[in-house]
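#lab-general

N.A. 3:47 PM
ok so I finally got the sequence cleaned up, no stray characters, all 359 residues accounted for. can someone with queue access submit it? mine expired

B.Y. 3:52 PM
send it over

N.A. 3:53 PM
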Amino acid sequence: MGRRPGLSVRLRLTLSYAGFLAVAGALLLAVVWGFLLRYVPDNSQGLLGISPNRYLLVRTFAPAAAVAMGFLLVFGLVGGWLLAGRMLAPLTRITAAARTAGTGSLSHRIRMEGREDEFRELADAFDSMLERLESHVAEQRRFAANASHELRTPLAVSQALLDLAREDPARDREELLARLRAANTRAIGLTEALLTLSRSDSGLVGREPVDLSLVAEEAAETLLPLAERRGIALDVTGGAAWTSGSPELLLRMVTNLVQNAVVHNLPSGGTVEVRTEARGGTSVVRVENTGAPLPPELVPTLTEPFQRGTERVRTGEHAGVGLGLALVHSVVRAHGGTLTLVARPAGGLLVTVLLPGTP
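B.Y. 4:20 PM
back already:
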């Protein structure tokens, strides 16, 4: 946006300092005139014929006052310029860092030394902003690269199947259609997951009261056939837990947690326990499942996009796209909550979601 040229802050501060000194000098001279010269007689002989009169004092005092005012003005300009430059030096460094960041270099930091003051608080806040921005940009680049890689796989499979069908018309068409449908379903699932993740990251537009216990029951009802086919007991307990947010995103969050707990479980005879409760001003959702033991260093990476636990048992039917817990984490963050993952000593995972509660 174009702006008209104007005076620099340093010049304005300099003129302010000089003006302040000039006004202070003028006031001092006015005080001298008002409280000293007013008592000097204004006649040709002066007081008792020996003291100087007001006329002589004014003629003597006026040139000296003019010199003093000129000195104050010059001193104010020079001293103000130097003082303003010294005071604004930190702001110059912050401006240079902002211009560097504007070119795309987010690794630069000001790291201003010295005691705490307003400029150093601004510099520290700017450094924190750059650090978060750099981390966010790196995460988005990594996410875009991983998403492109994940989308390329089902598309490449579809292209290979189509080429195979064209080159070998006698091949079993039903088998090709089934494999093509599976690849297409995987691509659609990944695309929908990416859209949901993007929506939750962009923030919530509208909120409404949601009972997480009802959401948990709906998610469990949807996934009960999958749990029964795998021989896994799915149990939902607890009481009402009200929060404010998007019903669609909260349902997707709980559904992903339950599906994740069902899919990444024991081959048979496993359990999944879902519990909701209101704890003070917080609404809690806990999803706990059995399964293979998880290395402690693997657990923190499970919420990253396209990260999968290699030791977890799953089948190709619900292999997922590596966005299950990443979506959960994104939805929880959009609702102002926290997500905690703990590996169970006996195997499996305990996931706890804390969301702000509402009456």
